[in-house]
Amino acid sequence: MLQKIFGQGKRLRYLCQDESRLGLKTELRRVVTNRGIQPVVRVAWKRKSFWLYGVVEPLSGWHFCLEYPKLSGQRFQEFLNALSSQLADDIAILQIDQAAAHLTSALKWPENIIPLCQPAHCPQLNPIERFWHFLKSHIKGQVFNTLDELRVGAARRRHRLHEILSQITPERVMSLTSYDFILEALFYAASM
């Protein structure tokens, strides 16, 4: 039935989108020490940061992220255009929150992306939040002196975030983002 609606060779995909800030301020985690010994942890309080705009597809485990210096409607438009190119002939329903940058009338939504707003103040409904949490768990407790060091990593030549993202398998993304209520709705819609 979807082929009749969308045409031959096109797929309908369900994607979840959000942004996450990464920066020099150290994100702490628990430190294990002997009983009675106060843990000593290096902490940086610098406020420089950048934003990752991303999408995940709970059904297949596909993910796509781009880095931007700030959060804005213009950057979101650039991200939508890049996502549209990545989708090629596919059509995506894109779950978004109600951030001002997502709802501005200045946005020109690509033809192959259909926005779907989640209820306000409900980030727990967006599966990409668990993806961000998993991504940040790989840099928790680390101290970075510059944003380039965060991107590249100490004593590494490769892009640090690219390295982390490239190691996240589709199976891992699916296990993090495949909420039962989303899968049930998708399977129900496919059976109609």
Description:
- The protein is 35% helix and 19% strand.
- The protein contains eight helices and five strands.
- The protein has helices at 2-6, 73-87, 100-103, 128-137, 147-152, 160-167, 170-177, 180-191, and strands at residues 12-23, 49-56, 63-68, 91-96, 113-117.
- It has a five-stranded mixed sheet, with helices on both faces.
- A hairpin with a 6-residue loop joins strand 2 and strand 3 (63-68).
Overview in brief:
This protein is of the alpha/beta class. It contains eight helices and five strands.
Which features characterize this protein?
19% strand, single chain, alpha/beta, globular, 192 residues, five-stranded mixed sheet
Poorly predicted runs are none
Give the assembly state of these chains: single chain
Strand content: 15-25%
Summed over residues and divided by their number, the pLDDT gives a mean of 82
Quick one: how many beta strands? 5
Overall spatial form? globular
Q: How is the biggest beta sheet arranged?
A: 5 strands, mixed
Spatially, the strands of the biggest sheet line up as 3-2-1-4-5
The helicity comes to 25-40%
Structural class: alpha/beta
Our measurement of the CA-to-CA distance between the termini, rounded to an integer number of angstroms, reads 9 Å
